[in-house]
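Good morning C.,

I know you're traveling, so I'll keep this short. The sequence:
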Amino acid sequence: MKRLVVVSNRVADLRSAQAGGLAVGLADSLRQRGGVWMGWDGQTLKYEEEPEPRLRKVGTVTQATIPLTEQDYSEYYLGFSNSVLWPLFHYRLDLVEYKTTFLDGYRRVNAKFANALMSVLKPDDVIWIHDYHLLPLASELRQRGCKQRIGFFLHIPFPPPEILAAVPRHRWLVESLLEFDVIGFQTNTDLGNLQHYVEDHLGCRLEPDGKIAIGEREVIAGCFPIGIDVDSFVEMAEKPSDEVQIETQRREILGRQQIIGVDRLDYTKGLPDRLRAFARLLELYPEMRKSVALMQIATPTREEVEAYVEIRKELEALSGAINGRFADFNWTPVRYIHGTVPRDALAALFRASQVGFVTPLRDGMNLVAKEYVAAQSMENPGVLVLSKFAGAAEEMHEALIVNPYDVDDMARNLCRALTMPLEERQERQRALMQRIREHDAAYWLNSFMAALENGETNRAA
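The tokens, ready to paste straight into the viewer:
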């Protein structure tokens, strides 16, 4: 078996990966196979230097990390990655802040990644690059003589051509992306958006098998929905801490239910409207008052970006207003937690919650939806309320699918979830559990690697 080399913006701590997103998906997958994981080490230096990657062995995985300069961090990470690509790919053109220096920094850091990666590669390695930070990395590697097979997986949405075309150098971005041998997306919608772009803007030909023909080359583009390690999450959910058990027993005695939301503190997650929907539930169904509470965990992220500062202020004001309006001396409607909760504690909290409330305005997949389902007991499962704009909605049809822009729709479905009969809950849970087991982390890894390793390369040696 060829060695797998994974590259992403950050290298997670494999000994304590937290819930959700790229870190857990890669950690679960890479542990099975072993190899190298390369990325930024989180350090920012004042002055430019390009040392050899720092290597560290963690089980079967070698971590190779490099630092960035303060200028790199500002222009590549906060700038082009998170002030241009992140809002653009989430359909938020109103939040795109384009500067030429941001693009310069983005290209410079991708070149730095390529130089570092070339120093650790072996001739028969298979390279798997992840996410929007590194769209041009294959192009940089090819310029340096890299002949290995290179795959790319986008964890966030890919926008339609009319949105992508709004940013300068969009053609360069897609042409760079097409230097990969395999390009993977979370959903068929994202895949279709790329296909429409390359036909309309680049004049590329789509083959009957879905490959994109570019001159003498063919690029495999496909849908590879990311999954979780279901059994490990089930195991964590079945071993709640003493604190969670005590809180669960207290709510059972009082006859109260819990709705839970767990997200990074990001404007794409629909958090303000989620809180408004909960308040609307209490308005439309007064009988729900004192019988249900919302626990919203919002993990801090990108706090240097102004849009994230504003959403934190908005959420704190909303949760305070809802509690001020509805709370009683022995009941707090909203428990808003701005912090990080360990993954094992989240699993137990999911199991103890009667509703999982996952309502992003736009999301690549959203593993929280799958984790919530994995955590449920078949004897008395909870109900997943899921945004139709989450990638997971393409698979998880048995969830209650809602429009995250429609507060009343969310409120009505929250009431439906909270009052759903046991038999219906069990039927939905069985179907959802079967699907997340079929498309788990191992399936994601194996299906992508099959395309990458067994696909025919048309690149000259």
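Safe travels,
E.
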